[in-house]
Design goal:
- The protein is α/β, with parallel strands linked by helices.
- The protein has a single domain, classed as 3-Layer(aba) Sandwich (Rossmann fold), CATH 3.40.50.720.
- The strands form 2 sheets. The protein has a 7-stranded parallel beta sheet, with helices on both faces. Strands 5-9 form a two-stranded antiparallel sheet.
- Helix 1 crosses helix 7.
Length: about 280
């Protein structure tokens, strides 16, 4: 079959596109004239978003259901793209999963799913698509990090560790690809107005009690940095200063401060999974 992406527009794949920053990144890409493949678990939300983007911006938007917590989900998604003859010029690894709570109480199955989504699926999609980008001499990759990429986070230990991995992996890969026409950008927002805090059971933590970034603004900043080939973008002056202070402070002090920001008043925290 012929690909529906018949125009000369660049095509972007956005994972976790059904809500939050992923949805806003899809809107930003469509507004800039890119065709889209929208991947997430929520089919109804994807269908609604695809219709919105096609109507408002005249782009082609294809929704594909993908549960990236499944072991072979990335390979199956790539195979579906190949079957439809869709070439991806821009890869946005946005899908994320959080398990919040004391590590001695959190559910291990949920933690393994977190590792699958945040790490394995991201690496697999990148592994599958980068060679094609290099052959064509063009590609943009945007991986979603966090201010948590820069510090350990007690009570959110695996999530923060996964985002540290994303940052380190992205920086290294970006340097490997230098001069080949493919760039890798890590978008590092702080707390943002999305469903993340509610789904994670983190609305009562100190870190979500302050000023929250706007998801649309985060997406616009991320898109601009990605298209410019910037390696890392930390959203907001306050967050940039926070990251600088974390880099200059003793690691033990950073961890203790993070513990205070991530804690609730209750001493015993129950785990709540969040998936995008």
């Amino acid at each position: 079959m012929n690909s529906p992406m018949t125009s000369n527009r660049k095509t972007a794949l956005v994972t976790g596109a059904s809500s939050g920053i992923g949805r806003e990144l899809a809107r930003e890409l469509a507004a800039r004239g890119h065709n889209l493949v929208l991947a997430a678990r929520s089919v109804d939300r994807l269908l609604s978003l695809a219709a919105e983007l096609e109507q408002q911006h005249g782009v082609c938007a294809i929704p594909i259901r993908a549960d990236l917590s499944a072991p072979n989900a990335a390979q199956e998604l790539y195979a579906e793209l190949r079957r439809r003859q869709i070439e991806i010029d821009i890869l946005v690894n946005n899908a994320g999963f959080n398990v919040y709570g004391s590590f001695i109480e959190t559910d291990h199955a949920n933690e393994l799913a977190l590792l699958q989504v945040n790490l394995v699926a991201l690496v697999s999609l990148t592994k599958l698509m980068v060679p094609d980008m290099v052959k064509r001499g063009y590609g943009r990759i945007l991986n979603l990090g966090s201010t948590a990429s820069f510090a350990p986070a007690p009570f959110d230990s695996l999530y923060a560790a996964s985002k540290a991995f994303v940052l380190s992996f992205s920086e290294a890969l970006g340097e490997e690809l230098r001069g080949l026409g493919v760039t890798v950008t890590t978008l590092c927002p702080g707390p943002t107005q999305t469903e993340f805090a509610e789904r994670s059971g983190m609305t009562d933590t100190k870190i979500f009690k302050g000023r929250l970034a706007n998801a649309q603004e985060v997406a616009a900043i991320g898109y601009k940095a990605m298209m410019a080939g910037q390696a890392i973008v930390i959203v907001g002056l306050a967050n940039r200063l926070l990251v600088l202070s974390m880099r200059l402070s003793p690691r033990s002090m950073v961890t203790k401060i993070a513990k205070g920001l991530m804690s609730k008043q209750a001493q015993h925290l129950k785990s709540t999974p969040q998936r995008a």
